[in-house]
Amino acid sequence: MVFKRPALQIALDLVDLGRALEIATSTTYNLPREHLIIEAGTPLIKSWGAIAPRLLKKATGAPVFADTKTMDTGSLEAKLMIDNGADIVSVLGVASNDTIIELVEETHRHGKLAALDLINNPEPISTAIKAIEYGVDIIIYHVGVDVQRKRGVTAADLINEVNHLIKKIKGMGRRTYIAVAGGLRPGSIARFIDIGVDIVIVGSAITGSRDPLSVSRSILEEMGVL
Prior knowledge:
By secondary structure, this protein is an alpha/beta fold. The protein is 46% helix and 19% strand.
């Protein structure tokens, strides 16, 4: 599983598997696959189970992110997703240390990556630092959909916090990818690349568009990939 920085992760937070496959194949067939990560979103996995990452992997050949948001049974959920095509599996930062460690160990046992999602985490920096010491490969700064709707706040509004997190993490001298998610749209992307974000995660701006391929292309252009 290989992707190049910076990467666009397309979050397929859908319940329609056919639509998810349509978007995934259109983007990966027409855009630089090495700069793309295809996410089997949490709603897609809850709707379709392990078949979701399996079909996305088979259809695209691109790196597949299984957004399980694991809270318990770290090794079991990681292996289930990996056995079905996932290259990256997510665990919540508010999960127990034991769960995080189990998921990291299982993903690494298979040569895959572990991602830590900081959504709704009261101590994101200390949690991220501890997770990196456990071997987590990707740290995701994430503003949830409900927060976006209720408070009108997106990740783009909190770029200073992201910048502070990046400086702390990069200062550890580890090879850790930094990802950002939460209401990102074309026009808000370049600032994150400029401060050192490795992976930009975009969902509804792509999946809710009449032309997902065009939106994905414009984001990659803003990232300096095209």
